[in-house]
Amino acid sequence: MLRILGKASSINVRKVLWTCAELQIPFEREDWGSGFKPTDTPEFLALNPCAMVPVIQDGDFTLWESNTIIRYLAGNYGGADLYPAEPRVRARVDQWIDWQASELNRSWSYAFMSLARQSPDHQDSAALLNGIEQWSQTMGILDQQLQKTGAYVSGDRFSLADIPIGLSVNRWFETPLAHPDYPAVSAYYQRLSQREGFRLYGRNGTP
């Protein structure tokens, strides 16, 4: 059985859990990370030298990096509907997965740490205002894309890209800030909420 190492509240672990739900992959999950088993031990570092969750073990195969993991699961467990083989269609999915990991993650870093995590190192008012503006602008790009597709981020069908993007949208709405009116993002959030995997793992790791 697939073994998943990482606490359920981690956004990156939830990518893997939601993917497993979509593909109906049975798994066993172990709590690793802040507040649970430490990731800086020799045992864990032997699995992931970066000391980060999630890590999966699929038989004798060990893998880390959440977006790589979900791509692997889709490829190994019959996920062609989520991650199509046709190069141009797959490229669109990959484009938005990579955008989430780079542009969107970077845009929220200061505001999320300040407002949601209450980090004492992220309480500069000017930096916070700038962080909120950057996050809002990046979410505006997503809103424009969703207006074009009218459904999901890479097209008219749910794909693997909607898992990291959907979790990011959840983070956006759960962070206490003034949210611009992005009707396509709001409709997308409600659309995702109809999926069982999102209901289980899309809202901060709780059903």
From TrEMBL:
It comes from Pseudomonas jessenii. The keyword Transferase applies. Gene3D superfamilies: 1.20.1050.10, Glutaredoxin (3.40.30.10). GO terms for molecular function: transferase activity. This is Glutathione S-transferase. PROSITE patterns: GST_CTER (PS50405), GST_NTER (PS50404). Keywords: Transferase. Residues 86-207 form the GST C-terminal domain. It holds the Pfam family GST_C. It comes from the Bacteria. Residues 1-81 form the GST N-terminal domain. Belongs to the GST superfamily.
